[in-house]
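This part of the workshop introduces the protein records we will be handling. An example says more than a description, so a record of this kind follows:
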Amino acid sequence: MNRELIKYPLYLIVHPFNGYWDLKYEQSKRNNLILSFAILFLLIITNILSNQYSGFLVNLVYPGSINSVMEVLYVVVPVLFWCIANWSLTTLMDGEGKFTEIFTSTCFALLPMILINLPWIWLSNVISLQETSFYTFSSNVAVFWSLYLLFVGNMTVHQYTPSKTIATILLSVVAMGFIAFICLLFFSLVQQMLSFVNVIYQEIVLRK
């Protein structure tokens, strides 16, 4: 990747309207996907490092209880659910965004959560109790910045009005909950089937 390509995500988070327009119409789709997966990977690493090495004043997670696989799922699953829900709804609501465009715009919107939270992993180990408010404030800024980028990205990708974008985002969140419910129901059904098969197997073995 050339230097300009690496600088592009930084340009997008500062100039989201121009950045997302270029992302949809000007940038190479292949490069967009590469950058998106790179951002997603960095967010996973940031979350793992944050839970493992953040100072005890701000870290609510016991480092010994961290499961790296679950940390990956905590990032990947919500992003995947969001993209599926948003794509499913916008397909019915005259949205112009493709699934890959929704995915790339979502991943780019997550960049502030890396740029702001990553330095605080070290800083949180040297701050005092009174200074933890700066940590909380910075974390909130990262979240709201990412939400704003998600809003602009969704509006640009689908060519929606602001009001329709807000409605679509709210409906997408509801759809995410529905998808999560269906997935839990499916896994529960599979678990019950496996349990039933195991009981039948045990019965056969004992009768022998």
